[in-house]
Design brief:
The protein has two domains: 189 residues, Aspartate Aminotransferase, domain 1 (Alpha-Beta Complex), CATH 3.90.1150; 264 residues, Aspartate Aminotransferase, domain 2 (3-Layer(aba) Sandwich). It is an alpha/beta fold. The protein is globular. The chain contains 15 helices and 18 strands.
C-alpha cells in the first residue's frame, strides 16, 4: 500500500517527464506569484507518502504546511465525506440548519481550552478568516479599536491579516493597511540581545510589550493581544510559558482579550489536541481560539471558539458566510477528531518529536551550521546559521538543503523571518521506518551541502 511505501526516485531527473509537462502548463496558466519550487506533481497521496505522475515517491515532512496531521487520503475520512456527499453538498447555515455543523460545534466546545464553562463555536473556511473573525469578536465584546500582534507573526493574507502578519513580503505593495494594528517583540529567546542571560529574557520581552502600550496604544484601547502558541512562519518558536502567564496577567489587568492563533499548531500537532492545553496546565487560558488546517484533513474549514458572553456580544450579520461550516467539511472534521482521539495521535506526536529532537541534537554535535533546535511535540524547527557565535542566518544553505533532499524523495520547507529554519510537520501517521528514512535523507543533504559528505559516508560505512 502507498501509505507504507518508502521514498523512491525512479526517473533519471526531477521533475520526471509527465510531471514536467504539467509544471510547464502551470507556469503558463497560473500567476507566478503563487510560487512552487518543488519538482512534484501529485498523482495520489496516502499517509505521509506522495506518488507523482511518473511513479516517484516522496516522503512529506511538510504535511500540507500543517494540514495533514492524519495524513493524505485517510480512508475513514474519505468514506465520511462520500457519505455526506450522497445526502447534500451544501446547506448555508443562515438558511438551513445541518446537524454536522451543530455536532462539530458541540465537539469543539467540549475540547477547546478557552476560559469559561459555557462556550460557543462557529466556522469559517481558512486560517486567515478564523483570525480575522477572532479579532472582530474581540472588538465587538470590548468595544475597543486596537489589537497587538508580534514580530515573526503570520496570520494570513486578507487585508487585516496581512496587516497582522509581520513579514511584509506577504503584503508587498498592498498598503495602506488598516489602522489599529500594533506590534510587540515576540520572545525569540535564541535571538535575544547579545550578552543577555537566558533567565533575563522573559522580563525583557514583557518590557517590550509595555513599550508597545506606551508607544502605540494605551492598553485601555486594546481589544486583544493575538499570540501563536508556537510561531509557524516566524521560525517554529514556542511562546515560553512564563511569558504567556505574564501576558495573561496583563490582559486581565486591562480587560484585554487573549486570542490564541492555533491555525498551524492545533489538532495534535504539538502533543495535545490544542497547544493551549499546555497553557491551561499552568493555569492560563486564552479567551478566544482560532483554528484551521488539520481540523478537516484538507477540506477547507476553520473555527473560532470563545466563551458564551464573548460570542453573544457580536451583532447579527457581522460573522458568518456562504460556505462557512460546509457539510462536507464538517463531516470530515468530525471523523478527523474521532480518529485523533481513538488513535491517540497527540501521544504519537510526542513520540515523533522525541525521535526528531534526538537526531537534531546529535546533528548539532556534528554540524556547526546548526544554531538551534526547538519545538513542541511533532512541531519542530531546526535553525541554520553561518556562525554560531554571530548567529548570522544561512538562508542559502536552507534553500540548497531543500533542493537536495527533494532529489532523493524528501520534501522539506523553510520558515523563519530570515528563511533559515526548516520546519518539521510530517503527518503524525508516519511510520518509524519512514521517519528514519527521511531523517537519513535530511542528514545526507546536510553533509553534502556543507562539504561533510565524505566524513558522513565513512561514518556510515
Amino acid at each position: 500500500m502507498l501509505k507504507d511505501a518508502m521514498p523512491e526516485i525512479i526517473t533519471d531527473c526531477l521533475p520526471g517527464p509527465k510531471s514536467a509537462q504539467v509544471i510547464k502548463r502551470r507556469n503558463e496558466a497560473v500567476p507566478s506569484a503563487i510560487r512552487c519550487g518543488y519538482p512534484v506533481v501529485i498523482k495520489q497521496g496516502a499517509g505521509a507518502i506522495i506518488e507523482d505522475l511518473d511513479g516517484n515517491r516522496f516522503l512529506d515532512f511538510i504535511g500540507g504546511v500543517g494540514v495533514l496531521n492524519i495524513g493524505f487520503s485517510h480512508p475513514e475520512v474519505v468514506a465520511a465525506v462520500k457519505e455526506q456527499a450522497d445526502k447534500y453538498f451544501h446547506g448555508m447555515f443562515n438558511v438551513v440548519t445541518h446537524e454536522g455543523y451543530v455536532k462539530l460545534a458541540e465537539t469543539i466546545n467540549a475540547l477547546s481550552p478557552v476560559k469559561g464553562d459555557k462556550r460557543r463555536t462557529f466556522f469559517a473556511n481558512s486560517g486567515a478568516e478564523a483570525d480575522e473573525n477572532a479579532v472582530k469578536i474581540a472588538k465587538a465584546f470590548t468595544k475597543r479599536p486596537n489589537i497587538i500582534v508580534f514580530s515573526g507573526a503570520f496570520h494570513g493574507r486578507t487585508l487585516l491579516t496581512m496587516s497582522m502578519t509581520a513579514k511584509k513580503a506577504y503584503a508587498k505593495g498592498m498598503g495602506p493597511f488598516p489602522d489599529g494594528v500594533y506590534r510587540a517583540e515576540f520572545p525569540y529567546v535564541y535571538r535575544r540581545p547579545e550578552g543577555m542571560p537566558a533567565e533575563k529574557a522573559i522580563d525583557y520581552y514583557i518590557e517590550k510589550l509595555h513599550e508597545t502600550f506606551n508607544d502605540c496604544s494605551d492598553p485601555e484601547h486594546v481589544a486583544a493581544i493575538v499570540v501563536e502558541p508556537l510561531q509557524g512562519e516566524g521560525g517554529f518558536i514556542p511562546a515560553p510559558l512564563e511569558w504567556v502567564k505574564a501576558v495573561r496577567k496583563i490582559c486581565d489587568t486591562y480587560g484585554i482579550l487573549l486570542i490564541a492563533d492555533e491555525v498551524q499548531c492545533g489538532f495534535c500537532r504539538t502533543g495535545r489536541m490544542f497547544a493551549t492545553e499546555y497553557w491551561k496546565e499552568t493555569g492560563v487560558q486564552p479567551d478566544i481560539i482560532a483554528m484551521a488546517k488539520s481540523i478537516a484533513a484538507g477540506v477547507p474549514l476553520s473555527g473560532i471558539t470563545a466563551r458564551e458572553e464573548i460570542m453573544q456580544s457580536v451583532p447579527g450579520g457581522v460573522i458568518g458566510g456562504t460556505y462557512c461550516g460546509n457539510p462536507l467539511a464538517c463531516a470530515a472534521a468530525l471523523k478527523v477528531i474521532e480518529i485523533m482521539q481513538r488513535d491517540n495521535l497527540a501521544k504519537r506526536s510526542i513520540e515523533i518529536g522525541k525521535k526528531v529532537m534526538a537526531r537534531y541534537h546529535a546533528w548539532m554535535e556534528k554540524y556547526a551550521v546548526i544554531g538551534d533546535v526547538r519545538g513542541m511535540g511533532g512541531m519542530i524547527g531546526i535553525e541554520f546559521v553561518k556562525d554560531r557565535t554571530t548567529k548570522e542566518p544561512d538562508a542559502p544553505l536552507v534553500s540548497q538543503l531543500i533542493a537536495e533532499a527533494a532529489q532523493h524523495g524528501l520534501l522539506l520547507e523553510n520558515a523563519g523571518v530570515h528563511g533559515n529554519v526548516i520546519r518539521f510537520l510530517a503527518p503524525l501517521v508516519i511510520s518509524d521506518q519512514q521517519l528514519e528514512a527521511g531523517l537519513d535523507i535530511f542528514e545526507a543533504a546536510i553533509a553534502k551541502c556543507t562539504g561533510c559528505e565524505e566524513v558522513e559516508q565513512a561514518r556510515l560505512a
